Amino acid sequence: MLVVGQDLAERFLKADSVAIVGASERQHHTLALMKCLVGAGMDAGNIFLVSLTSPIVHGIATVPTLKDLPSKPALVVCLVSARYVSSVLTDAGELGIGAFVCVADGFADAGEAGRELQDELVEIGRRFDVAILGPNTLGYLAPGFGIGSWVGDWSAVDVPSVRDGGAVIVAQSSGMLNILLQLAAYRRIGVKAAVSVGNEAVVDAAQFIGAFSRIESVKVIGVVLESTMRPRALVSAFLEARRNGKRLWILKFGSSEIGRKNALSHSGRLASPGRIWDAIFAKLGVGIAEDFDEFLEGLGLASCFIAANYQATGALGFLTVSGGDVGLVSDLCERTCVPLAALSKETEDRLLGVEGNVTHACANPIDLGLIGHRLEVLDGIAEAIFADDQVGYVAGRLALPWKFSQRAAAMYEVLLTRSAKAKKPLVIITRGAEPLDPRWYDFFAGQNIALLTSYASGIRTIRAVTSMFEAKGHISDWMPSELPESVALGNGDDRVLGWHATQEVISRWGIKYVEAGIANQIDEVITIAKRVGFPVCVKGLVPDVIHKSNAGLVHLNISNERSLLLACEDISRQPLVTAFESDLYFEVQPMLPIACELFLGMVRDPIAGPVVTVGSGGTNVETLEDVVCILPPATEEEIIDTLHKLSIGAQLFGRFSQRQIMKFVDTVRCFASAIVEIDGHVTQVDLNPMVFTLSGEVLAIDAAVAVSNAQTGATR
To answer: 673: part of which helix (H) or strand (E)?
Structure first.
């Protein structure tokens, strides 16, 4: 990496002249780029065309090379094919040009030969201190900075230019960003800047996120994220953005399951890439979009919320002119956990007292019916709704004919006036994907009102965006130092530590294990059973076998010596045991009066480093999949928040005392702190189950620790 922060922003966002190298009329890139630059406000006299083969392109005279230009441009956009880019980049470097966009593919995206070409670009960029965007990118578009270096072909798309706004977008995929920008232009959603980082040879997503986080006028940073090969840098940039007061809104896709199917432990299989990214996002307190529409409309909604000084308090007040809409919206809100405000008695009385309220509208959602067309009645009702202390923001759909109507627009202006006076956001939602007159988009954008394009997706977007505003994250004392600098997939040779080694390790982590013992002779097994007290549980210990119950290696509620002998004989006949040539060891534990089974584990992820897994425990742990991941170290508040996210959470907080719950919370906290310090060869940990006993203890009754490239210790 070469440039960071303000320097990066200066190089790309404040470029006042551009050279297009490889200019041609044979493809759309040159003309699209010229239109984009001029449309964004650049003087046509500051756009230079460079071509070895065409002396004139689109009526403009060209020069053969960068060195033939009359003056040094601030930015080069290179359209030549992959094998010629290094020569152009060298010329740019020798001229002292600091910013370079490489559009061509055929680099690291095209195998080993392409990787060598990309490595050459990196070396040249570092030698001359040139910030390279790409390769394999369509460039960037920055309406808020008066520059548009985007080569996507919009000739067949009838949309206006992208509006300036408070949000920026950083994407890895140019194709996805191109569609998002077209939709943003069509729906008049403001975007201050958008950049596609492509192959991230020199300048990556993290650097642009960091640069945008230092720009005061940027309020929301949207990220279209596939994955990353530099996790620490990316998460550090997210953290910087959050600490600088920016809202992070992320569309994450492409989580791979590579390396999960053959994981030894429950942790290894349950800590899916999706759950691990969720843990990263929960730590940072960012917003998550599920699809394109939610991502794009969420950017606009978040910007409008910030402009309206939304305080993340209060619930939804909803206005409509249809009784059917009331039922539908109520159902959707309940389904998506969007709370509808419970209006106070005072507000109800105010509503009923509005002159002309002949329908007696006084319950939220408000069905205005025909009275919604009378501006003075609408104003009185809107005033009462916005004034209610339980209402944090108002959404609705009044008359919205597909063809723009000034009369209908006047109704929304009434709502806007009341919204401004109450300093609470206003959101408009259409019933479905209605083919609205583009003038409606212009009208709402001009009033800085978010327009969401269907009840279902709109209410889901409201839930996601309000959750983002409510999320505090857990970043005050956290640094992503445990995340790897770069991704390196493991070689899959994990092995499970023996029983004694496991006990020693978990004891150091502060995990209290049930009283137990192991032996390979039946008389010793009986001695242990007498010591811990009947009834007992007996388990067969087979190397690298964690899921003992599934393998027939566990017998429960053994009440006497005869039953214990029969249980050991049965375990000895199991297929996994007969294939094992060494002595078979048995673990003996007392049967405990168990009130609840939980799961605690760790997996070392190639992107996130050590990740703690917490959830419902027992033999059905993978079937239930009631698990949440946490990035260590973790605070008490963070762990309690995590427990509330579990399906078993309601049982925990409803059945057990705060003292009992805090015992488990403290166990998780100590474990999370300990795994940050452990040697990197520990790759997976299962403590399943961790149990709450009726006497109030929190104990592990089974444990497994997997290591990589290390001695595994004896079987026992």
So the answer is: helix 658-677
Residue with tokens 């375990």, as numbered in its chain: 571
**411: which 2 tokens?**
């109704």
Residue 236 burial (CB count, 10 A)? 18
pLDDT in tens, 170-196: 999 999 999 999 999 999 999 999 999
Burial class (CB in 10 A: 0-12, 13-18, 19+), 232: buried
* Residue matched to tokens 């609840």: 596
Q: Which residues pair with 500 in a beta bridge?
A: none
The single-letter DSSP state of residue 339 is: P
Do 240 and 218 form a contact (C-beta atoms < 8 A)? no
CB atoms within 10 A of CB 583: 10
In DSSP terms, which residues pair with 446 in a beta bridge?
Answer: none
Q: Rounded distance, CA 244 to CA 214, Å?
A: 7
Sheet of strand 287-289: strand arrangement:
147-150, 139-142, 193-196, 167-171, 220-225, 247-252, 287-289
Residues 6+ apart with CB under 8 A from 180: 169, 171, 194, 224, 292, 295, 296
Which pLDDT score is estimated for 492? 56
Token look-up 């460079």 returns 50
For helices 82-95 and 111-128, angle between their N-to-C axes, nearest 10 degrees:
0
Amino acid at 387: A
Q: Is 416 left (phi over 0), alpha (psi -120 to 50) or beta?
A: alpha
Q: What is 594-707's CATH number?
A: 3.30.470.20
The angle at the Cα of 249, spanning 248 to 252, to the nearest 5 degrees, equals 120
Fold of 5-254: Rossmann fold (3.40.50)
| Chain centroid to CA 616 | 24
Let me know: does 78 contact 54? Beta carbons within 8 Å.
no
How does residue 6 score in pLDDT terms, banded at 50, 70 and 90?
low
8 A C-beta contact, residue 195 and residue 170: yes
Radius of gyration of the chain (CA): 31
Beta bridge partners of 705: 685
DSSP H helical ranges for 288-392 = 292-307, 323-336, 345-352, 375-387
Tell me which fold the domain 515-590 belongs to: Dna Ligase; domain 1 (3.30.1490)
pLDDT digits (tens, 9 = 90+) for 200-215: 999 999 999 999 999 9
Tokens 């956009």 -> residue: 77
Is the domain covering 302-470 a CATH 3.30.70.3400 domain? no
Per-residue CA distances from 538 to 248, 273, 514, 567 (Å): 51, 35, 13, 8
Domain ranges of the chain: 5-254, 302-470, 515-590, 594-707
